[in-house]
Design brief:
Number of helices: 7
CATH superfamily: Transposase IS200-like
Number of strands: 8
Radius of gyration: 17 Å
Order of helices and strands: EEEHEEEEHEHHHHH
Helix content: 25-40%
Distance between the termini: 23 Å
Length: 217
């Protein structure tokens, strides 16, 4: 196995999400992490749900990786992260060595599902079975930068808003300077993705080819 990699399978509590979270991480690589509602159902039902989910991202994921971009959609979410030595770490849980980020994602999704089930007076699965983490190998046609643009364009492409800056639940406004949020490591993103903040807004609206989109998943 390649040095600096962890590969684990984390079984989440069946009552909460019926999910097996299986992700593989290498240090110093970019990853597109995503999941959507079971049977494509909604996972966010009101504004407070988006805010609650982002708080959980901050609490559980930020200690394990650098978040470069995100977007929460009514029935799915996208995260662009940079993995480092924290990300590939492990800890002993129930006599098993488990990857810290995989475990953090499990806790995030299961605890969020529990809260939504309580809110909606429902039970069972909220998310699809497998949370995916697609490695965007650095230097490969700048897929990290393409992924950021794809993530930010999601609400506009879905017809939820006419302009990306009108969607509140993504990191686009942070990079445009319209909001001073601290979740994303913008300095690191600038270095890794070669961002030009003077042209960032216009560059973000450029069309992404279908082939490039396929390589993000």
């Amino acid at each position: 196995m390649k040095q600096g990699v962890t590969r684990f399978e984390t079984v989440a509590p069946l009552f909460y999400i019926f999910a097996i979270i299986f992700m593989e991480f290498f240090a110093d690589e970019l990853y597109h992490i995503y999941n959507r509602g079971n049977n494509k159902q909604k996972i966010f039902f009101k504004p407070a749900n988006y805010v609650f989910f982002l708080k959980k991202v901050r609490n559980f994921l930020m200690p394990q990786c650098d978040i470069l971009a995100y977007c929460l959609m009514p029935n799915h979410f996208h995260l662009l992260i940079n993995a480092d030595n924290r990300t590939i770490g492990t800890r002993l849980i129930a006599n098993q060595q488990k990857n810290v980020l995989s475990e953090a994602v499990r806790i995030l999704l299961s605890s969020y599902t529990l809260a939504i089930n309580k809110q909606n007076e429902t039970t069972g699965s909220l998310f699809q079975q497998n949370t995916k983490a697609k490695c965007l190998a650095k230097g490969s046609n700048n897929y990290g930068y393409i992924c950021m643009n794809y993530i930010h364009q999601n609400p506009m492409k879905a017809g939820l808003v006419k302009r990306m800056e009108d969607w509140e639940y993504s990191s686009f406004n942070d990079y445009c300077g319209n909001r001073s949020e601290t979740m994303c490591n913008k300095e690191l993103a600038s270095q890794l993705l070669d961002l030009n903040f003077d042209t960032f807004y216009d560059d973000s609206y450029r069309l992404i080819s279908d082939l490039d989109v396929e390589n993000l998943f």
